[in-house]
Amino acid sequence: AVCGRQLPHHDANPLAIHARNFNYGTETLIKSKNDIKNLGIKTVFMSNSFAAYRRSVFEALGGFPEHTILAEDMFMAARMIQAGYKIAYCAEASVRHSHNYTPKQEFQRYFDTGVFHACNPWIQRDFGGAGGEGFRFVKSEIQFLLKNAPFWIPRALLTTFAKFLGYKLGKHWQSLPLS
């Protein structure tokens, strides 16, 4: 499997610009089981927004899961790495893809991400959690905003809180009341 670089749309807000620049670097990578120790969960980072899978491998590994809330791309990348295949990130291939999410939308997205990880604990068990990556992202985002759009810092802090809360609640979704 391979995914390419995602560049922010021309109308992307500063948070969306930073997110794309942080997650989609300029260096092409080929990742395997040997990278888990250094990259952790980033070993299985994959985005279906701009990806291709070898069909024979995809089908041999059962395809995308039927009942997942999102992150079927990470699920498949993890299965491929576990099975001994390599996955690639090709920085030379790029597409414009970004979202100007509101804090509420980020909460919802990260809630769903938490549900995904709660339902698929093997991914964090085998590849590790985001750990320090979240802190690295926030630090990088603040530095980026200080240079480029300081008035966006309050929004960034609110968004970070929304992501954190959404993820934590999503991880415990089965304990939450239905209404």
UniProtKB/TrEMBL annotation:
Q: Which domain of life is it from?
A: Bacteria
Name of the protein in its database record:
Rhamnosyl transferase
What are the record keywords, sorted? Transferase
UniProt gene name: wbaN
Q: Where is the Glycosyltransferase 2-like domain?
A: 42-109
Q: Which GO terms label this protein's molecular function in UniProt?
A: transferase activity
Q: Does the keyword Ribonucleoprotein apply?
A: no
Species of the source: Salmonella enterica (Salmonella choleraesuis)
